[in-house]
Structure formats: C-alpha cells, structure tokens
Design brief:
heterodimer, A: mainly alpha, 10 helices, 73% helix, 0% strand, globular, B: mainly beta, Lipocalin, 8-stranded antiparallel barrel, 2 helices
C-alpha cells in the first residue's frame, strides 16, 4: 500500500543527500570548473538515488533480474559514466554525443532483456516488431536528450533539470496509479535527487546547469516511463506526454519571451511543462478510481 | 541343427521387432496433461482473516511414468503467469504487474523433477520450482497414479498441494501483508496416452 509518510521521508533523504554532495564537492574550492560541477552533480544524484531507494526498500537485486533493477544497476550508471566523461574539456564533443546516442539506442533493449517482448516467435513481438519499437523509443529518447541539452546551452538555468524532476514526479505518480507501486516509487527518488542537486548547484555553482543533470534526468525519466509502459499498465499516450512535457521549456525561446528575466523564464518553463503532466495525472486518477471500484466491492451493493 | 536354426530365427525376429520400433513391455509410459480434466489453483491469506482463491488457466505438462523403476520417472509442469484468474479482472491485472508476478518479465512458472521415488499411495517428487525468476528445490507428494482406460485412451491422475512462501521467490516484501506470504498451490492433473 502507498505510504505517504515513507514517500516524504525518502524524498527528503534523496534531495538532502544529493544537495549535500553538490555543496560539499562543488563548494569546497572556488572557482570550480565545469567538469568539477558536473562531477559533483552526478555523484550527488548517485547518492540521492541510492539513499532514496534504500529508504523506500526498492526491490533491486544483483544480478539485476527485473527491468527496474537493470535501470538502476546498468542504464543509470552507464549514463553517469558518459556524463562524467563528457564534462571533461579534453573529451571531444563527438565522442560524448556518440556515447549518448549508443546509450539511447540500447537503453530499451537493456530494459526489455529476458522479457516476453524479446522472446522471438514465442513472445509478444516478432524480431522485426521489436527492432521497430526499440528504434522508435531510442529515437524519442535521443530527441528529448538532444533538444534539452541544446536548450541548456542556448539559454541555461536550473529550470530544465527542475522540469525533468517534475516530469519524473508526475510520471512516477502515473505509474503508481496504473498499479505498479515500486516503479512509481523509484521515480520519487529520481525526482528528489535531481531537484536537490539542481537547487544546490544554483546556490553555489555557475549559472549554467550542468549537462550531467539533464542527461541523468532524461535517461531516468525515460526508464521509468518505459518500464511503466511495457511492464506495468501505463498507457502509451501518458508515457509520451510525460516524456515530451519538458520540451515545452523551449517555448521561452519565442520572440515574446526570449528577453525576459531568467527567473521569469524559468517560472514560465515550469508552468508550461506542468500542463500536460496535470492532464496525465487527472486521467490516471480517473482510471485508478474506475479500476479500484470492483476491488473494493462498491459495484455490487448488498441492498440494491 | 534344427534347434539352432529355430533359436537363430527367434533371435532375428526379436531383433527385427526392436529395430522396427516395438517398445519393451516395461518401458516408461509418457503422458501429456489433459487440461480439460486438470487444474492448477492456489489460495493465499487475505488480511490474515480469510483465503483468496484463484487459478491459472493456461498450463502445460507432461510426465513419464516408469512403475518398475520409479526413479526413472520424470514430471514437468509449465504455468503461464498471465493466465491468473481470481474471478476479478482488476485484481488479475494487478497481480500480473511487476509488484507481484511480473508476468512480462517472468512469463512462466515451471517445475521440473530431478528425482522420483515411490511412496505408499503415490510418488514423492523432488525438483526445481521456478517462479518470479527464482529457482528453489521443492518436494511434492503426488497422490494417485492409478491407470484406467476410457474410450481408447489410458489415463493416470495425480493430486498434490505445495505450500510456498512468496518471500522465498523474491516477491516485493512490501506487498506481503495484505496478501499473506504463504500461498498454497493445488495441482490436480490427469495425464493421457494412447
């Protein structure tokens, strides 16, 4: 059963842990370079995810047997490694984006490993279907990752990682309402760790939001939604709406808004990205209530 | 000489018969599950006050029974996890999700025997039981084993009950409570052979 107190505790722990690491590693010696800030944010998120996940007792096993375990033990660590490498000034840009594209292309395959989707003729998909679906998912992930990174370079600020955090929070709630509790709980840790690191970085770091925050935020959000869609009962429409919601941050690049103050642009970005999330959550709640009715026996009154 | 000739002919005839595929009289008999007359059901505690009953609608199985040498017998069972049916569609959907059976990741629940011995009234079968991606050794006591012939088909039936703890199979511990840790699986199978 969902436990609001346990969720609040885990969110506080994850956000606090990631913020403390960013403050400790990033604020010790100034001025800090981009690589240092990036490393601080990535390590902060790693610790936030681990502590939040431990607080929630997420069902993760070694070796990873479930999709959720593969997300936390393979996909996210791989993204952390790539973002750490990408932050070094000596690392060529093509190498960083090459590795990001490889991860985007393979994340879906890793998450579906051993499932009915990849069982060939005996499974739900044929080999061709699997290739097409995985290519589409990889393309969607790469597109969101690329566009948000581009926006962060063009018009930096913590609003982008915060938009990813709020999308993760909403995505997690939608996954939970669709009946997969542990999958949704994992998203709470991700959302809190992202928010903690982003806010801490904004206090002591440069104005530029580290790219690592965006990379981990996008891949984590994609993973939660992908698992919710293919292993839980999250609808395709809801998953896509939540994944693409942070792209609405691009609206502030319109001529009318582009020269506004940074705090106002940030607020507009978060407000716009929240609109599709609100619709997804409202629909998920309605569906949840409809699904729960027969379980609670309210469809069969004793005295008609 | 004639005696030697008849012995040679008898041996040759036996050899030909074996070569032609005739089975020795004491070979193990192979049976396939007749799912019209077999079922795999279960019950689990709800709130520790009552039992919830359910069944799996899609099951495959086969066994090979060697009555002279029971240790040579084998039993296999494969249950489709997403065929769970508790007479409540919403609950069934919930049970298929990763918080419970994770049917997309672990589509089947399997049993394969590793040793069999005869006991009064049936057989004691030890084997590997795989559920939720975790394999554990279990021992079943199969009751029954009587063969009858009905409408040209030979039939053997067995029944057994298998108590299991969900926590032994890596089910999410947080979801143990409302529905109890222990579940009892009831297997009634009828095998057929021509």
């Amino acid at each position: 059963m969902p436990d609001a107190a346990a969720y609040l505790k885990a969110i506080s722990i994850a956000a606090g842990a990631s913020a403390l690491v960013v403050l400790a590693l990033g604020g010790v010696r100034r001025p800090a370079g981009a690589a240092r800030w990036n490393a601080a944010c990535i390590l902060g998120i790693a610790l936030g995810l681990a502590s939040g996940g431990a607080s929630l007792q997420l069902p993760l096993s070694l070796p990873p047997a479930s999709a959720l375990a593969r997300l936390f033990e393979i996909v996210l660590p791989a993204a952390m490694g790539i973002e750490l490498l990408a932050a070094f000034e000596r690392a060529p840009r093509w190498l960083a984006w090459g590795l990001r594209l490889i991860l985007a292309a393979s994340a879906g395959r890793i998450l579906l490993h051993g499932s009915v989707y990849l069982a060939g003729l005996k499974g739900e998909w044929t080999a061709w279907q699997a290739s097409i679906y995985l290519a589409l998912c990889g393309a969607a992930l790469a597109m969101v990752w690329g566009l948000l990174s581009w926006l962060a370079e063009r018009s930096p600020g913590i609003s982008i990682p915060l938009a990813l955090s709020q999308a993760s929070l909403a995505g997690g709630a939608a996954v939970m309402l669709a009946g997969y509790l542990a999958g949704g709980e994992a998203a709470l840790s991700l959302a809190a760790a992202l928010a903690g690191a982003a806010i801490a970085a904004s206090f002591v770091g440069p104005r530029l939001a580290p790219q690592g925050l965006i990379g981990l935020g996008v891949i984590g959000l994609f993973g939660i939604l992908f698992i919710g869609r293919f292993f839980g009962r999250l609808s395709t429409g809801a998953a896509l709406a939540v994944l693409f919601a942070p792209l609405l941050c691009w609206a502030t690049e319109a001529p009318l808004l582009v020269n506004r103050k940074p705090w106002l642009k940030g607020a507009i970005r978060l407000a716009l990205a929240a609109i599709p999330l609100a619709f997804v959550l409202a629909a998920a709640k309605l569906e949840f209530d409809r699904g729960m009715r027969p379980l609670l026996g309210v469809d069969r009154p004793l005295h008609p | 000489m004639p005696r030697n000739l008849s012995a040679f002919l008898a041996t040759a005839a036996l050899g030909l018969a074996i070569a032609a595929g005739a089975k020795p009289a004491l070979a193990a008999d192979d049976y396939a599950f007749d799912m019209v007359h077999s079922s795999v059901s279960f019950k689990a505690r709800h709130l520790d006050i009552s039992w919830i009953h359910g069944r799996f609608n899609e099951v495959e199985g086969k066994f090979s029974l060697d009555r002279e040498h029971p240790s040579k017998s084998t039993f296999e069972l494969s249950i489709k996890a997403d065929s769970i049916d508790t007479a409540n569609k919403a609950r069934d959907e919930h049970l298929r999700q990763p918080d419970y059976f994770d049917a997309k990741q672990f589509p089947t629940i399997d049993f394969k025997s590793t040793s069999v011995k005869a006991v009064p009234g049936g057989y004691e079968v030890t084997g590997d039981f795989t559920m939720h991606g975790k394999t554990k050794k279990v021992t079943l006591t199969l009751k029954g084993g009587k063969e009858i012939e009905w409408m040209g088909t030979k039939r053997v039936g067995f029944s057994t009950e298998l108590p299991l703890k969900r926590s032994d199979f890596d089910f999410d511990k947080k979801n143990i409570g409302l529905i109890g840790d222990e579940a009892i699986i009831l297997i009634d199978c009828e095998g057929t052979r021509k």
